[in-house]
């Protein structure tokens, strides 16, 4: 049995006649008849009912043809994979992101690439606070998406592209707050805090947190931060977009201090090293995200 024989069988079943199949495959009718005859002889079964003007499958032929279609589909997919590998498309592409980045935005970029690069495995790797550069410099990811500060330019050679802004707000569960809502950092210091674990960057210290609370709860996962906040474990500064529902329902309330910014606006960028050459998958993902997904 060969793929060519299965292709002939498929075309005959599809078009219903040897002549039409021969024309479609640019072969002679005797060549197609011989291909089907050899296939039938190999298994000692009749695949086609030749008693009518239009060729149809016998009961045994229908069973055989169903499996033949599976093989032909797999062969087509394998051929596509071979061509994709030959073009140098990456078989694995890793994307790192800071917790401040919303995964939905990244998933949209991956979704745009999935059909164009069907053999590529995509890995989305979350990190700790300000971890995008760590992930890039350590080679853990091919492209990172994260909070960007201009001082990062002094840490290495990077290509970056701004793709979004985010707003950080201070919030807590109402049950955590005393009768007199804190209006200064000094008063806020009396409450516990919830924060993201620091990255290994030299300048990333606890001082980048909102306050020096005596009790702190830390994690590197934004969903866990939100859960801890809603349970009343502590105050936190989080991206406003990620707690909009909780603010609207009153599960969380935003805090305003006299001696601290009510909200902080930051920038999210695509980041990669200048010495990292992106392949077709990486470049497509980069361009997709840079153009708004």
Topology of this protein?
Elements: H1 3-15, H2 18-25, H3 29-43, E1 48-49, E2 56-57, H4 59-86, E3 92-97, H5 103-114, E4 121-126, H6 132-137, E5 143-147, E6 158-172, H7 185-188, E7 193-196, E8 216-219, H8 222-230, E9 236-239, H9 244-249, E10 253-254, E11 263-273, H10 280-290
Parallel strand pairs: 3-4, 3-5, 7-8
Antiparallel strand pairs: 1-2, 5-11, 6-9, 6-10, 6-11
Helix pairs in contact: 1-2, 1-3, 1-4, 2-3, 5-10
The termini sit apart by 46 Å
> How would you sum up the major sheet?
7 strands, mixed
C-alpha-based Rg, rounded = 30 Å
Q: Kindly name the structural category.
A: alpha/beta
Under CATH, the topology of the largest domain can be stated as D-Maltodextrin-Binding Protein, domain 2
Total domains: 3
Mean pLDDT: 85
Instruction: Tell me how many strands there are.
Output: 11
SSE order, one letter for each helix or strand: HHHEEHEHEHEEHEEHEHEEH
Number of helices: 10
Query: Overall 3D geometry?
Result: elongated
* CATH architectural label of the largest domain: 3-Layer(aba) Sandwich
CATH superfamily of the largest domain: Periplasmic binding protein-like II
- State the name of the first-level CATH class of the largest domain: Alpha Beta
Q: Extract low-pLDDT stretches.
A: none
Strand content: 15-25%
Task: State the share of residues found in helices, binned by percent.
Answer: 25-40%
Provide the descriptors you would attach to this structure in a database record.
7-stranded mixed β-sheet, 293 residues, D-Maltodextrin-Binding Protein, domain 2, two-stranded antiparallel sheet, single chain, alpha/beta, 3 domains, Arc Repressor Mutant, subunit A
């Amino acid at each position: 049995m060969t793929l060519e024989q299965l292709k002939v069988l498929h075309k005959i079943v599809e078009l219903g006649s040897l002549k039409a199949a021969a024309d479609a495959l640019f072969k002679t009718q005797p060549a197609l008849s011989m291909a089907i005859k050899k296939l039938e002889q190999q298994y000692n079964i009749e695949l086609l009912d030749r008693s009518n003007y239009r060729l149809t499958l016998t009961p045994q032929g229908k069973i055989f043809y169903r499996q033949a279609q599976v093989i032909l589909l797999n062969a087509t997919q394998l051929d596509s994979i071979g061509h994709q590998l030959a073009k140098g498309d990456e078989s694995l592409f890793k994307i790192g992101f800071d917790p401040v980045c919303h995964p939905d935005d990244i998933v949209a970029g991956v979704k745009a690439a999935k059909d164009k690069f069907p053999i590529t495995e995509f890995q989305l790797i979350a990190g700790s606070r300000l971890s995008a550069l760590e992930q890039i410099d350590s080679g853990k990811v091919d492209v990172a998406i994260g909070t960007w500060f201009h001082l990062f330019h002094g840490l290495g050679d990077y290509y970056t592209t701004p793709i979004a802004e985010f707003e950080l707000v201070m919030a807590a569960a109402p049950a955590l707050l005393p009768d007199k809502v804190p209006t200064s950092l000094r008063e806020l210091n009396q409450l516990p805090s919830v924060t993201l674990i620091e990255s290994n960057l030299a300048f990333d210290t606890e001082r980048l947190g909102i306050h020096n609370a005596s009790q702190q709860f830390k994690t590197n996962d934004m969903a866990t931060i939100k859960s801890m906040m809603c349970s009343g474990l502590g105050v936190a500064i989080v991206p406003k977009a990620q707690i909009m529902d909780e603010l609207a329902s009153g599960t969380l309330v935003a805090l305003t201090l006299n001696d601290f910014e009510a909200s902080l606006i930051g920038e999210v960028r695509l980041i990669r090293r200048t010495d990292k050459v992106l392949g077709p998958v990486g470049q497509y993902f980069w361009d997709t995200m840079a153009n708004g997904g």
